[in-house]
Amino acid sequence: MPIRLKPDFPATSVLESEDIFAIDNSRAEHQDIRPLKLVILNLMPNKIDTEIHLLRLISQSPLQIDVDFLKVASHEHKNTSKNHLDKFYLEFSQVRESCYDGLIITGAPIEQMRFEEVDYWSELVEIMAWSQTSVTSVVHICWGAQAGLYYHFGVEKVPFEEKLFGIFKQDIEHHFRLFRGFDDRFWMPQSRYTGINEEQVRQKKIKVIAKDENERSAILISEDEHDIFLMGHFEYATDTLEKEYLRDHERGLDTAKPANYYENGKIYNYWRAHAQLFYHNWLNDVYQITPYRLERIRELQEERKLRS
């Protein structure tokens, strides 16, 4: 089934050129099904690239999906046009009373700042608190994962000596249902200056379900299975790391070439299949557990909180 997008949404033409099926609202409304409703809190500077990256992945599901894009109101967005944001993005005040089947919180290139120094931190905290009662399942990505672990569990960031940058092997620690169809080892892009306090993770109600070869947590899930934390970027396109590398050097940074990325000068994508499978499994999982009537999500989440 397709993603339902507005006909003039910029990602639509890109997805159509890649033979990814999308339909307009008028046709979708004639289909007698209840689509999954997702909301993506897009914190990345280049919002259009991130839209395309994530829509590529969630389009692989056989389910019809409605997607809302969310922006933080307490931040000046300098890298995406105001027209695009006004036309295609909502603010939290517009969704506060709504329920969603799934929420994706993206990363942001601000991991070297203290969380409380981020100008939209209080708004993000409000959104993460809302997600616990109004969303069936939440995926946090990279900085979004670090922010979620800090807010929900008090897990602190730790700085790396140098940027973790490249494609890295990950080992499955627990064969959780999100890994249906996965090989025992998979690759995931990483691009960050900080990690998480692994000792604190072991003391919290968090399960590490995948680690890299250096025993760093790669994918984590809360004990109640409501929140998923991806430390890397499954959503990255093949050339995303190269663009970041060139951008870093244009800024005068001495970032090393991304590890395990080039072979004889050519870029090889080692993560695409597992990325698509992961999001396919997540959407299928959400579909199995989310109520048909969205307003029942709050009732079910209250029951979940009582059980935990």
Automatic annotation (TrEMBL):
The record marks 191 as: Important for substrate specificity. It is found in: Cytoplasm. The gene is metAA. Pathway: Amino-acid biosynthesis; L-methionine biosynthesis via de novo pathway; O-acetyl-L-homoserine from L-homoserine: step 1/1. It catalyses: L-homoserine + acetyl-CoA = O-acetyl-L-homoserine + CoA. Transfers an acetyl group from acetyl-CoA to L-homoserine, forming acetyl-L-homoserine. It comes from Enterococcus gilvus ATCC BAA-350. SUPFAM superfamilies: Class I glutamine amidotransferase-like (SSF52317). GO terms for biological process: L-methionine biosynthetic process from homoserine via O-succinyl-L-homoserine and cystathionine. Keywords: Acyltransferase, Amino-acid biosynthesis, Cytoplasm, Methionine biosynthesis, Transferase. Its main location: cytoplasm. InterPro entries: Class_I_gatase-like (IPR029062), HST_MetA (IPR005697), MetA_family (IPR033752). Coiled coil: none annotated. Substrate binds at residues 163, 191, 247. This is Homoserine O-acetyltransferase. It holds the Pfam family HTS. The keyword Cytoplasm applies. Belongs to the MetA family. The record marks 111 as: Important for acyl-CoA specificity.
